[in-house]
Amino acid sequence: MNEYNLPKQQTSESLVVLLNKTAQQDREAFAMLYHSTHRKLFGIVHRILKHDAKSEEILQEIYLKIWEKSSSYQADVSSPITWMATIARNRTIDEVRKNQLPDSDEEIDFDSIIDDSMAPEDAFAKSKELSKLESCLAELGAPRGEMIKAAYLDGYSRQELSERFNQPLGTIKTWLHRGIKQLQGCMKL
């Protein structure tokens, strides 16, 4: 335990506490938040950029953004790690688009990503959610499920999806919109 009475293995609830303290400009809480989450966020950045030095540079920018935006975090909207991962993913995709970094054809096995900052009960809940997500993606069918994964996990733009799936841009937009709505409905069941 520490001065915030947080467990050594961070839970979603303890990360909320750290984010709230960070919003109050608490540097120690921010350091604990970084220590608890940096491996996960680095993994997200590195899977997209595939370059160690650039990934580390972008990771520092991401944590600066987390420091600056921590007061906008809303626990009732998303988990802390989801909120931070979204910041990481979006910043990294911006970097790819800005510098037109080459994409890799390498497939990423997202199931093998280990979050060692997660408590066992959180890991179990996450694995149940992941199984449900995989099931819901499978219900969407081959091109739409793959398209949503490519867009939201791999960072493909709509134009890139149009080229990859050999479909007009309007069709891609419609499929993504409908697919996300269907996915949200399935996840709520």
From TrEMBL:
Keywords attached to this entry: Sigma factor, Transcription, Transcription regulation
Keyword Transcription: yes
Recorded superkingdom: Bacteria
Recorded family membership: Belongs to the sigma-70 factor family. ECF subfamily.
Ranges where the RNA polymerase sigma-70 region domain occurs: 33-100
InterPro entries in UniProt: RNA_pol_sigma-70-like, RNA_pol_sigma-70_dom, RNA_pol_sigma70_r2, RNA_pol_sigma70_r4_t2, RNA_pol_sigma_r2, RNA_pol_sigma_r3/r4-like, WH-like_DNA-bd_sf
Matches recorded under Gene3D superfamilies: 1.10.1740.10, Winged helix-like DNA-binding domain superfamily/Winged helix DNA-binding domain (1.10.10.10)
GO molecular function: DNA binding; sigma factor activity
Protein name: Sigma-70 family RNA polymerase sigma factor
Annotated RNA polymerase sigma factor 70 region 4 type domain residues: 132-183
Keyword Transcription included in the entry's annotation: yes
PANTHER family on file: RNA POLYMERASE ECF-TYPE SIGMA FACTO (PTHR43133), RNA POLYMERASE SIGMA FACTOR SIGZ (PTHR43133:SF62)
GO biological process: DNA-templated transcription initiation
Alphabetical list of Pfam families matching this protein: Sigma70_r2, Sigma70_r4_2
